[in-house]
Amino acid sequence: MSINIGLDIGGVSLKLAAIGTPADQSLLNELTRKSSTFFSAQLPPSSPLAGHPIVLSKYRRIQGNPVEAAFDLLRDFSNSVPDQKIAGIRATGSGGKMVARMLNACFENEFLAVAKAVKIFYPEVRTLFEMGGEAAKFLRLEPSAESKYLGIVDYQPNGDCAAGTGSFIDQQASRLLYSVEEVGAAACAADCAARVAGRCSVFAKTDMIHAQQKGYSTEQILKGLCEAVARNFKSSIVKGRLVVPPVAFVGAVSNNQSVRKALQETFKLQDSEFFVPDLYCWLNALGAALLEMEEVRKRSFSSLQQLQEHARAGKSFASCDPLSLENVVLLRDRVAPAPPLEPARKAEAYLGIDVGSVSTNLVVLDAAGRLLKEIYVPTAGRPIEMVTAGLQEIQAELGDLLDIRGVGTTGSGRELTGELVGADTVNDEITAHKTGAMHVCRELGMEPVDTIFEIGGQDSKFIRIDHGVVVDFTMNEACAAGTGSFLEEQAEKLGISIKGEFARLALASKNPVRLGERCTVFMARDVTGLLLNGAQLGDLCAGLAYSVATNYLNRVVRDRKVGNVIYFQGGTAYNDAVAAAFAKILGKPIIVPPHNGVIGAIGMALLARERMQHAGKPSRFRGYDLNRVEFTSRDFVCRACSNYCDMKEFVIQGQKSYWGDKCSDKFRKRSHTDRQPVIEDLIAFRDDQLVAPLKAKNGGRGTVGIPRAMFFYDRFPFWCTYLQKLGFDVVVSPPTDGRIVGLGDELAIAQPCFPIQVAHGHVDALLQLGVDYVLLPNVVNSETPDERVQSKLCPWNQTLPFVVRAAPRLDGARGKILAPTVHFRYGSKRVEKELHELARSLGRSSGESDRATAAAYAAQESFKDKLLQAGDRAFHTLQTTGEPAIVLIGRPYNLYDRGVNCDIPRKLRTLYGINVLPFDFLRLDVEDISQINDNMYWNSGRLILAAARITQRYSNLHWVYVSNFKCGPDSYIKSFINDASQKPGLLLQFDGHSNDAGYLTRCEAYLDSKGFLRCPSSATVV
Amino acid sequence: MPLLGHRCVTHKIGSDHPLAGKVVYIPAMAEGSVEAFASVFHWLGIEAYPTPPSDQRTLELGAKYTSGDECYPAKITVGDFVKIVEQPGFDPRRTVYFMATADGPCRFGQYVPFVRKILRDLGHGDVQILSPRGETGYSDIGKFGTPFVRGAWRALVSADILRKLLLQVRPYETSAGAADKAFQESLRDLCQTLETSCSNYDCQLRSLVNALRRARLRFHEVPMAYDPQRPLIGVVGEIFCRLNNFSNENLVRRLESHGAECWMTDIAEWIAYCNGEQVRDLRLTGRTFSLDMLKSKLRGHIQHADMQALLAPFAEDFVGYEEPDIREVIELARPYLPYPGAEGEMVVSLGKSAYLATRGADGIVDISPFTCMNGIVSEAIYPRLSKDCGGIPIRNFYFDGTQSDLDRDVGIYLELARSYRERKAHARRYPRRFAPCTA
């Protein structure tokens, strides 16, 4: 009774640590000799446990069955060590609870376990970073030898977000055909890193996919991923917490030298301040063993046999109806094989290519639109290679028989591929899918489709069609719940094939587990949890099929009307279980069309046919052999602005095309349309007017910095004029760029909305510029014509100065922050009074302040008037010409901060020739929104709904609503915007995600469905 | 003990009253409070019930009718309301939803227009929403507005007291379930007392005080073994999530089972804060001397007096457990979220945390819905507050209905609280029956 065992059962792996007394040395030596699983740990002689033999188990994955894995490991152990030698067992980790219960052993909180081990083995450590398979932790320790407590002073688990953990790296690495163990070395070999946003694993994943499509090498992406994981660990786990060296980095991920390096750089730690302990992976198990050793009231654990019995016993979980195919119409078998081609003459044919995040599809159609060939392959991060291989396959099989007369490309890699193969038309996926689906029903003589559920790898789309016109559509907004790659990852985790096996298991399940609606990241963890608790594979598969369908319906389709002829297509439609889940939930038949995975490519071949039949010129197709297409690529960094985008230049037969820029300012992509705007560039006009009051420095009483964030975008004329009138120079922080976003990310403690984070960065940037003061007004409310309803700013806007002031790193600068409280709603007299205190603190009199306030009001009025007058002119032009326009709706700091919105608002004009009418150019104060929402107490909300209401009255006005992820008010306002506008519009949510490709797709599909992009020829495609 | 020469009468609404024949459903925010609140309706002759207990169906319906970005309490409330729509025999013309509201700046005030829109889209736009706003908002209750407001205040304060007793006793009970039983019995007693109470305010107050005295005795009879080593954890945060055990996954019980005693911020404090905000708005708009101001002050005065009367039997029991005056809370928040520029629940959370720290609490837990704007602002400021208060551990717990390893978090958090306990500067005061032996 002298050996204590600690078992650490995580979501991914299992470790054992056993501590004996000196007398057990030979017994444990025997164990390590006999079993290759166990090895002896060497402790330094100074260790308080010197002389105690310690045995550890090698890294072992649990493969979704923790109980069995624990049983196997303990059996290996007890083969050499008799039960009566074991004093106690203590389990820790996410799977530890269940195993502990079955063994009747103690369960230990893993924080306490790891802190215990650190206190004993590495007492000098003050900060611990842990990245394990599914868990990441931050711990700050001030252990004292005397106290019985572990001296934890601060801690943070990864909580609701799985980014920054081993599984995330694991998942991403396997997408790129790397094993997790290889990532570190591969990433270290890369010269530069692709930019991967790290805040949420879903966005990070999307960034990686786009980086692949932009042509980054896999190693560069892996390096970017490692950096993202490190950055994310800092921004979402450590946040603004104090990191005191020496720092120990532990957990399985600490084995990854690239993450190690990235962490050290991210936290600016010297080599002497940062280390990975020898026992990096076993601290939790050791801590559990140590705590068990100290336990006075030992429990007698039950025999291993019991564990095995439990492992076999089934359990019950909340369940839903079994899936069934009775309401699913599978059309796969209803298509006739393609007619044989005559070798004598080459058949007229059209090529459609859809390069998506997860799959790459190619199809060849004949002149009659019959399918001659389809290819569906995983993109695997190599779009160029996949298209090359696909074309080679087509050439080998049909090359001699075909005359390719037109090529169309779509998907997120459409532009690169389009350039490479010589596409005649490049379209967004929604137009492609609609065209393809309508073709299928016409060919099969079926009722015309009115609803399309398109679920691809990363994007899911919902399209409603009425008489061949897209009347409504939506795509997943910054959320990948309810997409195919989610299921794929889960299937991989469960160790089953997504093809066939998944659906077979799911459809056979009698008790699908009720998993509910969840974010992808949470779901992954739930599934792990259920698995850890013994749920059956089939029941989980069926539950996941339900979840994807529910996520899709609740998060993508939401309250939109679902029609009666529903086509379910995209790669996920190969999975019959998902179709069955849709049928069950909706109680409507679900039709899975033939070639469901390549409908988009079919649509593109048809669009190419349509275009070429009208064009009367030869196709730009460069031929099957892309290796013969002369293309070179070169990496460089665009330094046109401080974003420093990583660029790739492709030279394809002398034609240059560029990829990778955030703004497309310097390397303007070709316009997608010949449309020309009829109104002036109002965004540029506003940008100029906003800063018009700013004067050059004249060495006045000092400098006041104004962050180019939040209130800057609507009230800069006021504050600038006020301060200048008081004799101060005004300095504005530089435009939002990666550096400022990064500064904000580090400075913000909690996780507010993205614009607030950015504002933190601007304050930091100003302080670094050495200004005397930074103005951060505490603006409580705004002017409004409506006296009945309040006109407040949101809590984050209101409290910005107080929150910034609390940031620990700005401790010294607290006195520099000017935070006057102002209530604009209560009129100029009130504001005048409120500003006295500010003036006094700047050494100016109340009289001077009053004069400055009057000038400030005049400047603000003048700004507003100029906008309204320009708006009137534009509005008049639009109404006399009848030209369509987009009314741009949103908070000014979302609409006008190009670093936040990927410059999409301006691109609407520059890329597509759209008339863009920002909402603050409209006379919003006369609109009454009380019928839509009678208590819209946010002024921004009132203006947003008023603008939407104006679009209701004009058939040529459409709307795009620019919002940001986590915007509190917008989460409600967006529910009312359709009531106000009575027409579908486009909602774009930005989140610091650096790629514009996904946003542009949404824009294009929206513009196309509203007729902005439709050229006369393609309008007749249907 | 009736008033001298007084005959008890209970005035009920007549058949011509707008709420006659209707059924009012009240979101079950806080156990105890909602039942007591419903009793006030019954007292006036109006049929009213808490919404049925939240469950999986609540979450499913909530998810169906929200986009997922709204706050978690909205999801629960919507789910619970739509569940009623789904009940067989649902009659939109008879159904009334009670839903408190606000004028911002946080999202809570949007629940009413949001619920109204959902009902409209469901084709039940005629379902009435009873949503009192400020001093004019009780017009739906007609001439019973004043008794309703006063009765409701008394009901909520009384329920707060019962909860306080429960949290004070339950961690130390030696017979499992005894404290909960005392709570349930006392709650039933309170509700019955309320429903049958006299329309005379003084008489009603007396009967309520008597009901609370009986509750006190019940709790005193709970067998317990007081342990001065248990850390005391103050609970602040968003009102719904903090008080609604379904939303917060029984966080208080979890804290207790890991060895803590909790001090929950009650409902009365929030009402007092809202009253104060009204006074501030009147002042800011230059109506310092107005009828509205007078009314507001008077109401504050009456409510304070009622609360003192209801608390009177507990002078001894609540030594060291005194609730602060709301002005003190606002004052304590001033260094972080100054008056009058900061408004909303975050001010109360910050100020109350500082107050609890000086009362010798060993830790503070903030319970908020995931993405709650107030919670996130508070979270950003807590580190500074904690530093100023001798390093008291303050922890945000966010909830959105997804599973997470709460027990692990609670376990580690209490390790911090215990370790802070060894070095904290503020000693606690104890009621005599708990006071640790100093000899």
Kindly summarize this structure in a few lines:
The complex is a heterodimer of chains A (1022) and B (439). Chain A is built from 32 helices and 36 strands.
> How far is it from the N-terminal to the C-terminal residue of chain B, by CA?
42 Å
Structural class of chain B: alpha/beta
| Biggest sheet layout of chain A | 7 strands, mixed
Q: What's the rounded overall pLDDT mean of chain A?
A: 85
| Count of beta strands of chain A | 36
Helicity range of the residues of chain A? Answer: 40-55%
Q: How would the global form of chain B be characterised?
A: globular
Name the strands of the widest sheet of chain B in spatial order.
2-1-3-4
Task: Give me the secondary-structure category of chain A.
Answer: alpha/beta
Low-confidence stretches of chain A: 662-666, 1015-1022
Largest sheet of chain B: 4 strands, parallel
Q: Which two chains share the most extensive interface?
A: A-B, 76 and 65 residues
Proportion in β-strands of chain A:
15-25%
Gyration radius of chain B (Cα, Å) is: 22 Å
Instruction: Catalogue the unreliable spans of chain B.
Output: none
**What's the SSE pattern of chain B?**
EHEHHEHEHHHEHHEHHHHEHEH
3D shape of chain A? globular
Q: Which band does the percent of strand residues of chain B land in? A: 5-15%
Helix content of chain B: 40-55%
Mean pLDDT of chain B: 92
Count, helices of chain B: 15
What does this structure look like?
The complex is a heterodimer of chains A (1022) and B (439). Chain A is of the alpha/beta class and 1022 residues long. Helices cover 41% and strands 18% of the residues of chain A. In chain A, strands 1, 2, 3, 4, 5, 6 and 7 form a 7-stranded mixed β-sheet that branches. In chain A, α16 runs parallel beside α19. The N and C termini of chain A lie far apart (80 Å). Chain B is globular and about 65 Å long. A 4-stranded parallel β-sheet of chain B has the order 2-1-3-4. A 4-stranded parallel β-sheet of chain B has the order 6-5-7-8, sandwiched between helices. In chain B, α14 (373-388) links the parallel β7 and β8 (394-399). Chain B is an alpha/beta fold and 439 residues long. In chain B, α5 (145-169) runs antiparallel to α6, α5 (145-169) runs parallel beside α11 (291-311) and α6 (178-195) runs antiparallel to α7. Chain B is built from 15 helices and 8 strands. The chains are: A alpha/beta (1022), B alpha/beta (439). Chains A and B meet through α4, β10, α17, α18 and α25 of A and α2, α4, α14 and α15 of B.
